[in-house]
Amino acid sequence: MGCFSLFFLFFFFISYAPTTLASSSPSFTPINRDLYRTSGVLTEELKGLVNRHSDKLLMDTVTSTNKGYQAEITVITYSRNRKEIDDRSKFRILLTFGQHGRELITSELAFRILSILSEEQYLPKMDPILLNTTLEKLVIKVVPMENLNGRKLVEAGDLCERRNGRGVDLNRNWSVDWGKKEKDYDPYEENPGTGPFSEPETQLMRKLSQSFEPHIWVNVHSGMEALFMPYDHKNTTPDGLASQRMRSMLEKLNHLHCEDRCMVGSGGGSVGYLAHGTATDYMFDIARVPMAFTFEIYGDVTASSKDCFKMFNPVDYSSYNRVLNDWSAAFFSMFNMGAHEFQSTTKLEKLISIDDYLNGYLMERKSRYGKKMEVLELGMQEIRTYFRLFLLSSVLLMFMFCSRISKSSRPLVSAISL
């Protein structure tokens, strides 16, 4: 009996132990193919969208190679009238999605925004007249999948991959504070590359920002719900009016579209860790983009840290649709606020003083004609002095004239008391 019992227990362990062990290990959520397009399908659908609306949309594909590694980025440009795509008087917005391969929901949002711009989809609560008025003032460039090579690795089964096709985090490969490593630095997650702009994707994005010179830049991510402004590499925000404008816009968006639940402030001061070599810090500090943001559009805090697809992407239709609807509305509110801010700023810039005008005129003429214009500077200084004296004299004469009229119109008062 003893031998029989041991044989029975051994047989039971062999038969059931694997099942028990498997059931105790964490399960990982696969990509929901009913919700998420593959990169290839998404590219084809973007091409179809552009072809159907060639009066508004223009599609460019650019490539770059570094040491045998090639990257490709698709850029879609929107203008209400495609002939005005290069109009520098327009308010210019640059949006990039999918910088980290595992954040598939961001590229789905890019497609939704472009579909609304093309009027194939609509925002239910958006005033169409206000929307059309706003869009007349804008040129928008959209990069739907910045990290195409990393995205393909995710689609092949590496669901936690955020880096590009050769293991570099594209949001650590920019030049502002590049290469600095915090105590909690993770070489797998945050590999900054061999140097600033070592990666073809980053080189292409820098070139795009330099040629387009946007007024607003937004780098769209997932992992949490947040509206970030500079800085990522230090626990502070910039000084001055530009910082106040950015924060004001983010607080309005948070109230309107996040129900005040989104984190607002600097990335470095809000997330709990500092990030060095990020795109948004470069855009603000080096490219001098007036408003540079990072939007985090979704995060499942209940998901296991190893269940990356669920952590970074909604997995059911209801959550998926809510994210796309809410954040599409947020972007179009931002378009409206930005266009209004730009128009107000432009009007103020036109109200310059006579000194500023003359100084600007002299500088321009001097740069054209060199030392010959220096002779005019003393004369122009005298003209400004005489102009001020003329204004002062005019004011004094007007005051004296008004005083005399006031005296002559007073009624005569008798000196004898009644």
Describe the structure.
The protein has 418 residues and is an alpha/beta fold. 48% of the residues lie in helices and 14% in strands. The protein is built from 14 helices and eight strands. An eight-stranded mixed beta sheet has the order 1-2-4-3-5-8-6-7, with helices on both faces. A hairpin with a 2-residue loop joins β1 (57-66) and β2 (69-79). α4 (128-135) crosses α12, α8 (241-257) runs antiparallel to α12 (317-350) and α13 (354-369) packs antiparallel against α14 (374-408). Mean pLDDT is 84; it is low at 3-26, 348-378 and 410-418.
Provide tags for this entry:
single chain, alpha/beta, eight-stranded mixed beta sheet, globular, disordered N terminus, disordered C terminus
Biggest sheet, strands in spatial order?
A: 1-2-4-3-5-8-6-7
Which stretches are poorly predicted, pLDDT < 50 over at least 5 residues? 3-26, 348-378, 410-418
Helix/strand order:
HHEEEHHEHHHEEHEHHEHHHH
Counting DSSP E segments of at least 2 residues, the number of strands comes to: 8
Strand content: 5-15%
Structural class: alpha/beta
Work out the helix count. 14
Helix fraction? Answer: 40-55%
Distance between the termini: 142 Å
Mean pLDDT: 84
Integer-rounded radius of gyration: 30 Å
* Mass-distribution shape: globular
Quick one: biggest sheet?
8 strands, mixed
